[in-house]
Amino acid sequence: MSPNNLSKIIIVAKDEWRYWLRSKLAISVMAIGLLLTLSSVIVTSIDMMELSHARHELQDNAEETFVDQPDRHPHRMVHYGHYAFRTPAPLSILDPGIDAYTGNSIFLEGHRQNSAMFADQKQGTALTQLGSLTPAFILQTLAPLLLILIGYSSVSRERESQTLTYLLSQGTSGNTLILGKGLALLSVIGLILAPLAVAALISLHDGESITAVFAFILGYGLYLSVWALLVLFFSSALSKNSESFTALAFVWILLCVVMPRVASTTAATSVPSAGKLETDFAVIAELRKLGDGHNAADPAFDKLKASLLEKYNVDSIEQLPINYRGVIASSAEAELTHVLNEFAEQRMQTELSQTHVSRQFGWLSPMVAIRSLSMLVVGTSIETHHRFLREAEALRFEFVQALNKVHVEKLSYEDDMNRNKDAAATQKARVGAENWQVLEDFNFEVDKAKQRMQRSLAAFLQLLLWIVLLVVAIRTIGKRLI
User: Fold this and answer.
1) CA of 334: how far to CAs of 286, 338, 401, 435, in Å?
2) pTM score
3) Does residue 456 contact residue 373 with C-beta atoms inside 8 Å?
4) In this model, does residue 40 exceed pLDDT 90?
């Protein structure tokens, strides 16, 4: 590009800004966009910092409460349970992702896999859900509309006012004119992204990777650039302001409202999932085949009983050097956990398959692409939630089996069997509170930045394809601009 053309592009951009500064609509729209972005960044940042602090404190309290329990029967502690909390990712101040829908804590107890609890969107009313204006929602949904309101007449205005012919006759090519208008729109995008960039950089203080921060800002820069190009395309292709605005409004509704719904509906239809009631019945049917871990006389454990008698060369379970009831509890928990994990993995694979189908619509809608990219880069995607479920389940199984080991080794079979005989027998069937030191510190963290970047690569490619196609289309129109 020659210096002469560059200077013309800058002159066109400055002239566009002069027009906007004289326009009450453009000034109002830019002010609203900046105010919304800035306020949402501040409010969401405060909320996420409070959540992070609260969840850290609750996790510590849960661990202290567990280990501070008095002398009990070991199996009572299995049912007493424990909590696992997921602290927000550093960049979740900008995009909470699916965290608001999936829940942030799990109650862990023996014989059960509970689902995550306390999802903000599930607890809120319809009005509070609509009022959740996160920075990601504003940039994904409202910022494109603001760009349309500012730039829909950028080129068509010149044609309507009959200044386009004059500009072209003065040696300003169609592509130069469009580039100048585009430069002005890019500067508006820079203003909108400024609060987001500052907040993203602040997340570095909380341990976020510079790679993730850069990718996050770049992703939204590409997304808004797609919309700037769409604005330029329709404003250049259509001869009237009203036509340009109508077409862009329709495109916004199609890409930002309709296509995400179509994507989710298609995913649910193409990869059907079993309902909760159906799954619960299937789980119950499988668990019934395992035997009752609370009943040492259950025939399902006859083989285990025989193997123990043979191993220790004794004639009855009363002669075993270990507590047979504790062995049964431990074995039953392992088998039960295996079955529950199989069903959990099936459910998670179904959810992941549905998500992958939905993400393919990013080739058809930049809104779907940026939504996927944003959650993947931040670490608030379905993959991160699934890892939280797996790590919480590993914690559950570990502490339950540790308590079962106490049951096996620290409590005699005779005392265990006679625990309900009288008050003295009940007291004798308890073990010391020092045995509750079985918990590992649980501190869930998002995936490494490299892994998040790999997952988001397809979404980046989707946005880049949109940009390439729109640039080619605009260049073609620019050559024919009259």
Assistant:
1) 14, 6, 8, 21
2) 0.89
3) yes
4) no
